[in-house]
Structure formats: C-alpha cells, structure tokens
Write a structure and sequence with these properties.
The complex is a heterodimer of chains A (about 230) and B (about 375). Chain A is an all-alpha fold. Chain A has helices at about 5-40, 45-60, 60-70, 75-85, 95-120, 120-130, 135-165, 165-175, 185-190, 195-230. The relative contact order of chain A is 0.15. Chain B has ten helices and 21 strands. Classes of the chains: A mainly alpha (about 230), B alpha+beta (about 375). At the A-B interface, α6, α7 and α10 of A face α2 and β7 of B.
Amino acid sequence: MFASLQPNEIEALLLTLKVSVVALVCALPLAISVAYVLSRFRFPGHGMLNAAIHLPLMLPPVVTGYLLLLLLGPSGPLGRFLLENFQFTPAFNWKGAALAAGIMAFPLIVRPIRLAFDAVDPKLEQASASLGCHGVFTFLIVSLPLALPGVLGGAILGFAKAMGEFGATITFVSNIPGETRTLSLALYTAVQSPDGDALGLRLMIISICLAIFALLLSELLVRRLRARLEGADV
Amino acid sequence: MFDVNVKGRAGTVDIAAEFSVSSGATCLFGRSGSGKTTLANMVSGFVQPDSGWIEVEGVRLFDSSKAIDAPTRQRRIGYVFQEPRLFPHLSVRSNLTYSRWAGRRTVSRSLDEVVSLLGLEKLLDRKPTHLSGGEKQRIAIGRALLSDPRLLIMDEPLASLDYQRKDEILPYLDRICREADLSVLYISHSLEEVTRLAKNLVLMEDGKTTAFGTVAEVLAGAGIEKDGFHRRSLIEGKVSHVDPEFGLVHVGIGAGEVLQIAAPDLNAGDHLRLSVSDRDISIAVKRPEGVSIRNVVQAKLRSIEMTASPHVDVLCQIGDHELRARITRASLHDLGLKPEMEVFLMVKSVSIDEHSPSTPKGF
C-alpha cells in the first residue's frame, strides 16, 4: 500500500507523523505532571490552572492559532525574543505545527491521566512513605505505574487530536507544502482545487487507515497493561 | 521508652494525648472514633500535631518547641494499616522487600526469617490481588517488619477479617509482640486482643488519653468506666504440677493458693499470665462443699464499688494479685460482705493470657 502512494502523499503522511510524535513527546511529561498536581494537591489557583488547561478545548481553534501567531509570530513579543536570543522561530514551519497540535491536544491528554491518578489510592503512597521511600520515587514506583492505562489512553487521544489538528495549525503556521501541510491540510487543499477529488479520496482513506491502526494498537496495549497491573499471578 | 505528649486536631476530633510507657508491646485501647488512628498518624508523621513532642526509643520524632518534625520516611515507624495496602502491581516478594529496594534502608532482619515467621513461603512469587484477606494482612505485617522499624504500629490489623482469619493471624501477632525485639503499638477496641497481646495499655476516650501503665495496673484501676464488656483480672503464676490423668495443670498464684486449669503442652516451671472475667467469679463466705467448680481460693475482700446497675464490683486480694468479681447488690446484702472480710472465690473459668516456657526460645 505504501508503494502505491504518490510522493506528495508520502510527504504529507510523514510530516503528519513527525508533527504528532513531537507534539506528543513534548506534551506528555508536562501533562503527567499537571495531572498529578491537579489530582493530589489543593491550592489557591487550582481552579484557574484547570480552566487554563481546558481553554483550547473551549475556544474556537482559529482563536488559539491566532493567539499563538500574535505571541510567537515574527513580530510577536515572545517570537522576537526567541528569534533574537536563540535563533529559533516556530512561525511558518513544522515546529510551529507541532506546538499548535500539542497545545490543542493538551487538555485531552491531561484528563484521562488525571482520572487515573484519582483512582490510585493515596493510602498506597502513605504506605510507601512509611517504608522509607522518598516522594519522587513513590511517584515513579507506585503512582505512575498504577496510572499507566490512563496515561496510555491520554496519549492515544492526544496523538489522534494532534494528527487531525487543523484550525490552529493553518492560522498559526499557514499551509506550506512539505513544511506545515499535514494530512488534514493536504486534504483541505485537495478538496478546494477543482480536480482534487481523486487525491482527496486517497488522503481520506490514508487517514482512516491510520486512525484504525492507532485505535487497535492502543486497545492491545491497554489490555496488556491491565492484565499486568491487576492481573493475575505470574 | 515511648513518650508522647501532643495536642492537635484532625477532622472532628481534638487530640490531647499524654502517656509514657516502657518498650515492648503497648496497646492503645478505646472505642471507635476516640482518636486512636489519628494519634497513630501523628506518631507516624501523616498528621502534624499543633504542639507537644513524640519520642520513640530515645529519638525525638516531633517537638514543636525545637521545631523538630521528621518526615515520615525518616521516622522508621512500621505501619500495618487496617486494610493491607499492598502494592497491587508488585509481587509479594517485591512488596516484602520494598523498604530495602525502594526505601534504601538497611534491614537487619532477613527475608527468610520473616517469611517463615509469617508462613509466606508459597506466596512469594504471586501478585497480591487474588490472595485472601488473612494472607494479605500477613504480608503487610511482614513488609512492615522488614522496614527495620524502631516502632511497629498495628492499627486494628484484624478489624477487616472474619473470625477464622483472626484466629489465623493472632498467633503470629502473639509471636511478634512477645518474641521480637521490637516495640509495638497495637491499636484495638477488643479487650481480648489487649490482654492477649500487650504488656502496656493506654486508654483513650474522646481524643484524650485517660490512663496508661501496665495492662494489669490499668485494668485493675478505675480507668474503664463503661459497662459494655467484661473486666478481666490478670494473675501471674507458675505451673507447679502437671496432672496427666485428668489433663489438668496446677498453677501456683501465691499465698499458697493454686488454680487448676485444663491446658495441654504445659510443663512444670512454666510461667503463665492468667486472665479471669469478673463475671466468672462467685463469692462465698464459707468454703463451699459439693460443687463442681474446682477452683475455690481464699481471698481478702478489699473494697466494694457500687454502680448504677443492680450489680456491684467486689475487689479481692490474693497475695499480690487483685481480682475483681461482679455480683448482684442483693447477694452483697444477703452475705453481709464488708471490706477486710475473708471470703472464698469460686472461679468458673480461667484463660491463659501469656505463656512463657521456663526455657525461653528466641525470635
């Protein structure tokens, strides 16, 4: 199937995977930390943090993209700072696409992980402390492994969201072939052009295959994890 | 030494605890909701007291006046919770050795020793999820023992178990409390467990400690006000004679008096602590004849405690021992009982509370 793809389709597919993987790899550790903090601690600003994380879910994606452009664009305050000091700019390249995808996916990653931490009994963490284990190691040895199915669920959801991200991406980093034109953007472009029906159809089928593959893989992983955690004797 | 003087608040209970007991097994006794677990959580560092100090085996774990508040992981307080709290994703072996590999503690007890003490040989490579409640609780006890604790807290470890499982675990607790070279704080609202396991007793009511000392001292004193249970008198004794023909042993309890009890596996010279319920003692003013009760001992009546009920408590003395009998006020009147009278106590049943063989065996 892979051999029958056109070069521009392969390009879009690989770019989509690159953008989504980078977005997920950067967002996941942050999402796990935030989810744990939200689940275990009550502090002033708890509600604000929670709301800020869910904001991209509520706002129209175009608004999020536009905000990013204003902040991180070539003339934005943060964008200029990054460019001048680190020669780095996310505007109009794949890094910006990954950033947009990561931010849009963030609330979807945090939520299942937080629920998973809620389900881990804090009494186990007390027991760990009474046995001499430092809090950081208790997190790594007890809390995180027990929350892994939720972490995996959040990662899958976030990955799917990142792959399909459209509105914030096109607003922030535009639609540049080979640089920011992911599958969704390529599909949109094909649909917009008068003779793009065949290409559009092919891109659609690629997207569906990818989604089904990701779903089956996650299902398999979650099942194995659960079996290992709750499971049965060796 | 186990020395506590703390004030504080957690949830709805105000805690004001003050006691000092010697090393060994101490029982913290009180009704549900009297603040026992909160006090234990203060000792282990889960709850911070407002003021006061906590000292275990010469180490200050908490002292508000010196700003000492050791974190839980450095206190070396082993904690067996009401529920086992095993780590479900780790094998029994990894749970038992958790303190060693996750807590980086050097542990003097060996895994094999604890495994054989608690009978866990067959469970080591299994996951805890599908084990029985009794097995899980034994693993939790083992895990706490293998954390090299200076004090082992056991918070009603039998509460979540049915009778059969309790009987399965009690002998192990017995061994730990008596033979392990370890201080234990045993939390309970069962007087049976208290008299069986503990050397010291701390009473707690509505968040306050009301009495402390050795079990015999506290139980004999007026510390326990409530009517809900039998008050037991404790008697130290020594097996003087074994009668294999009738399956009885004779236990000398001082002042020339002997109690005969039905107990296998005892040898002459063994030391015993016996326990007698106040409802199992009847009083006679003349030595009774023609009765089936074998244990009739002479005693001196010390004092009479009136209660609101139709019963009275009569305190009697045999040698160094004080025995408490509960009789009706009507009997008191009919027999004309008064302090300093010589009376005869008919003891209907005696249970063995502690048994130490004449040659002690090690842990």
